[in-house]
Amino acid sequence: MSVKNQTSVSFQTSDDLLQKLVDTAEEKSRENLKRFENRLVLIEGGGYEKIWLETQPMGGEMYAKRNLEAGINNQLLFMENQREDGRIPGSVACENGRITPQFNKFQGFCFPSAALNVYYLMGKDPGYLDLLYTTLERFDSYLWRVRDSDGDGCLETWCKYDTGEDHALRYGDAPNDWSEEVPPEGCSVVPMASMDIMSFSYASRETLAKISRIQKDIRREEIWKEKAACVQDKIRSYLWDDAAGACFDRDKNHRVLHTMTHNNLRAMYWNSFTQPMADRFVKEHLLNPKEFWTHMPLPSV
């Protein structure tokens, strides 16, 4: 794929302490640049040596202004290692010198908008855009083929690492990770109807509509907009509690899990909330000093 653009960031100040701080931060960030075989990537860092779907497409997009090669590879390694059935690896490692995609969780999905932004940073390569479209279309198809095991029209999370909620008590006795393409049996909570996994689909479909617009396929753009709206409508009708002004997941028996979580904020990142839903959650919960807006720290539940 051709890369037309070059990117760079520079910072100079007469404040010696601030300059040292920025220079040190830049130096530490460069330590997270690693070679996966012959591919330069930006790993998670802080002792985490992989790229996770949860963060590193977004991290790559952010770092692309400093190193475009790493920023692009942080998108491509997920796209190029997509399975035939459409599943995207939840993480990509380099083990014994070889790139190793891992499919034992989703972990998160900070991917569609980041990958599309990299398309612009790299100079609008049409081949990259085609690959992104195919990747998202196949992943969305996979989600609806596999992750609605009870057929209620709401996608499910099957393990704690699907949404990156390590040790989350609300998952009950759910496994940490899960590699099978059928849900675990005998658990008290999972398969769990999930605002996160539904939002994965919404974000995919919204981005597919944007790509279609870029490619001047208006009919296809409208189809994806309609498909995204269907997901949003299901989130609002099935997971949104209008009295509480928030979304709540449901357990395998369709019972509402009344745990107020920051996952509502994630849904806003994926744009799967309507504006009135987002306004209510921010006003009534995020800015509520008795819930999230505490002095220190910012709680997740």
Can you summarize this structure?
With 301 residues, the protein is mainly α. The chain has helices at residues 16-30, 56-63, 68-80, 112-121, 126-146, 195-214, 218-239, 263-269, 275-286; strands spanning 33-36, 39-42, 51-52, 91-95, 98-102, 156-157, 192-193, 240-241, 246-247. It has two domains: 18-123, no CATH class; 147-301, no CATH class.
Walk me through this protein's architecture.
- It is built from 9 helices and 9 strands.
- It is mainly α and 301 residues long.
- The chain has 2 domains: 18-123, no CATH class; 147-301, no CATH class.
- The strands form 4 sheets. A 3-stranded antiparallel sheet has the order 3-4-5, covered by helices on one side. The protein has a two-stranded antiparallel sheet with strand order 1-2.
- Strand 4 and strand 5 (98-102) form a beta hairpin.
- The longest helix has 22 residues, at 218-239.
- The chain is globular and about 55 Å long.
- The termini are far apart.
- The mean pLDDT is 96.
